[in-house]
Design brief:
Number of strands: 10
Helix content: 40-55%
Distance between the termini: 83 Å
Number of domains: 2
Strand content: 15-25%
Largest sheet: 4 strands, antiparallel
Radius of gyration: 39 Å
Strand order of the largest sheet: 3-2-5-6
Length: 256
């Protein structure tokens, strides 16, 4: 009886040992985050580092990133051993991730910021394909101080443009009336002397020219930038990095 029990216990131990000996582990090293791991199409988790107790032999490993299959291959698990694989952030994997994100790419292309210089050396701020104002740019990148400074400057420009416009219009109209008054046979205004007439005429012309000059100088203020080219360029790059991260695009990606 004791012999039978001993045989049974021995068989159980041998069977258990054989069962345990027929499995191995898979260890995953990755340079990429947020990876979905599948073994034989069974989901094993996100960013799983080790999978224990896999049957020895061949298994189908599939790795998915943001809906894109970036790796699919057969792996060999050896009994009682740990098999390691490395998932590198290679250009080929980056390309696969990008190809699976067409909507995100369109969104990024439409909203990315850039600072571009024309052949004459003037530079402009763009959101996607469209030129935007410095204030719009500052608000997008979260630079409220610059946005407020631009608003105050543009308010001042508008005031002086209006002042110049009124002076220019007044001077132009009075100059026209003055010369008409000179040319008609019966003037509707009679000046006390020729010198006084010349002073009035000169004043009308000078008022118009002064108004035009004020408008021109004030209008040039619309082209003045508070931000330097380098400041705007750095702000655009930081914004684009955040936008790519929010859309799940690779850090290396950039629209052409």
């Amino acid at each position: 009886m004791r012999t039978s029990k001993a045989i049974i216990i021995f068989c159980i131990i041998i069977t258990a040992s054989l069962c345990f000996a027929q499995t191995g582990d898979l260890k995953i090293f990755s340079e990429i985050d947020s990876l979905e791991i599948y073994i034989d199409n069974d989901f094993k988790g996100v960013d799983t580092k080790i999978i224990k107790g896999l049957d020895a032999g061949s298994h189908y490993l599939k790795v998915v990133k943001d809906g894109a299959g970036i790796m699919s291959e057969l792996i060999i698990i050896k009994e009682g051993l740990e098999t390691s694989i490395l998932i590198k952030n290679s250009p080929d994997i980056t390309k696969k991730i990008i190809e699976a994100k067409q909507k995100e790419i369109e969104e990024y292309t439409k909203n990315r910021l850039s600072v571009q210089t024309d052949p004459n050396g003037k530079w402009y701020m763009f959101r996607g394909p469209d030129i935007i104002t410095e204030r719009e740019f500052a608000l997008i990148v979260g630079d409220t101080a610059t946005a407020d400074a631009v608003r105050r400057r543009m308010s001042g420009v508008t005031v002086w443009e209006n002042i110049g416009g009124v002076a220019c219009l007044t001077g132009t109209l009075t100059s026209i009336l003055f010369f008409v008054n000179l040319l008609i046979d019966t003037p509707f205004i009679t000046f006390p002397s020729t010198d006084f007439e010349a002073i009035v005429g000169t004043s009308c012309i000078m008022t118009g020219l002064l108004g035009y000059g004020i408008m021109s100088v004030a209008g040039s203020g619309r082209n003045f930038r508070i931000m330097s080219f380098d400041q705007a360029d750095q702000a655009a790059k930081k914004y684009n990095e955040k936008l790519k991260k929010a859309l799940g695009l690779p850090k290396e990606y950039d629209a052409k």
